[in-house]
Amino acid sequence: MSEESQYSEHPGGWIEWFCQLPQNQYLTEVDSEFIQDPNNYGHLIKQFNLFQQALQMILSSEQPDTLDLENEKFLELYTEASDIYGLLHQAFIQTPKGLAIMRERFLNGRFGHCPRVLCEKQNTIPIGLSESLKTSRIKVYCPRCKEAYAPRKSQADFDGAYFGRSFPMLLLLTYPDVHPKFTIQLGTELFTPFQPTLYGFKVRDEKQVSQSSTQLQSQLPQQQQQQQQIITEHTNGIVEKENHHQQEKQNAEQESKQQKKKKKNKKQ
Ligand SMILES: [Zn+2]
């Protein structure tokens, strides 16, 4: 039994053919029921000129032959069908069923390994740098060094939007058991770590979040005390200065009175 046969219904036809193309090895077969659901494709209709024909092509039980692939009209439709399938794929792999399929593929090393020696051939996860088409090609994310790399072109050469930017984080959050046992910190000045996001928000690991929140809580009263102390010191300083000025003024007045008295005495 293949690794995903317990989940996938193997739709066959165009979908099976498309996912088996050498450059599409990272893509999984999306259920035909998912593709046919208007809730899943409704927002895509206006983005494509030939949406309905392209959708029919995706759901077709026939696989294209070499003559089809030489036909310009077919290729135009095929390009749209590929992108529509890719965007539906991005949504499908975020469903519980899609995540379960991708978990097994990840654990089986279907998406390759991290090229960094320190990561000891850590399995990687496909990631796009955007949820929108034609922004970047597919990359792979290493959960150990938390960096994104270009995959082998022979295995994966399609639009990054077919996976989207949030997918690795969603997979790791849904299945904490697939996290690597240890991660490595890359801290050279030349190294800029890849910033993982989930639906556009920066993601930090739980330890970091709880640590910083405890620090923040313990810092808050301290900061408030410090601020209060600064205010008190500042206020005391002002009061002291004011008293000092008044004392000086009184001294000066007394001195001038005494001098006046002396002058009067001299005149007498
Ligand atoms: Zn790595």
Automatic annotation (TrEMBL):
Residues 259-268 have a biased composition (Basic residues). One of its GO terms (molecular function) is protein kinase regulator activity. Residues 210-229 have a biased composition (Low complexity). GO terms for cellular component: cytoplasm; protein kinase CK2 complex. It comes from the Eukaryota. InterPro entries: Casein_kinase_II_reg-sub. Residues 239-258 have a biased composition (Basic and acidic residues). Residues 210-268 are annotated as: Disordered. Belongs to the casein kinase 2 subunit beta family. Tetramer of two alpha and two beta subunits. PANTHER family: CASEIN KINASE II SUBUNIT BETA. This is Casein kinase II subunit beta. The lineage of its organism: Eukaryota, Sar, Alveolata, Ciliophora, Intramacronucleata.
